């Protein structure tokens, strides 16, 4: 994709966020735009960085580490948003500032133990299987309170909030339902842990960003609408 197009797309998404916030009486300052850069080469991330983008989300560890290496001099905040297996936790704990996809205690314990002492605690969102899909990542809502109870005690982690990837729906009213539910689950966690500042709802992608913001999203994860359709064959 041309450099000009990426910059235009970034600006366009930024304008959509402002418009959407105006429509739902929120401040754009409450929303962090996470540019989801999986499958995009390092040079594409550099273009977005030069246009002011600072938060980047990656799904595949090896691919992400290579890009981090090539962009080491840039002041990027790296978010890991993909499925996370045990054998990948050490590198994630060492090389990312955020993980959005924690859905098991074992993974959380490893991330905490492997987080280097020299770094601040790793920011964590618990991923919720909000539509109850079989064979989908995420913890079921019924088990969330118990997982959170264990995770808040891990010294290497800082529990920040919740993340979800709902089923794709076209109708905005339908899109809002799982987001309202995730926001409700975060409220319940806040009541459970009044001492923990739980400030993050990571929800909303290219096709449902507006619905997510209307329901309280604080991080929107946008790939396609910034970088174009992904080509997984390269
Ligand atoms: C790929 C991905 C996104 C971005 O999706 P788009 O529809 O391209 O905006 C957001 N979140 C997660 C977890 C992803 O894997």
What features would you describe in this structure?
This protein is α/β, with parallel strands linked by helices. The protein has 9 helices and 8 strands. Strands 7-6-5-4-3-2-1-8 form an 8-stranded parallel β-sheet. The radius of gyration is 17 Å and the shape is globular. The site of pyridoxal-5'-phosphate (PLP) has 13 residues, from β8 and α9.
Relevant terms:
single chain, alpha/beta, TIM Barrel, binds pyridoxal-5'-phosphate, 234 residues, 8-stranded parallel sheet
Write the layout of secondary structure elements.
Blueprint (H helix, E strand, L loop, with lengths): L2 H21 L8 E5 L5 H9 L4 E4 L2 H10 L6 E4 L8 H7 L2 E5 L2 H10 L7 E6 L13 H11 L5 E7 L8 H21 L7 E3 L6 H6 L4 E4 L1 H4 L7
Parallel strand pairs: 1-2, 1-8, 2-3, 3-4, 4-5, 5-6, 6-7
Helix pairs in contact: 4-5
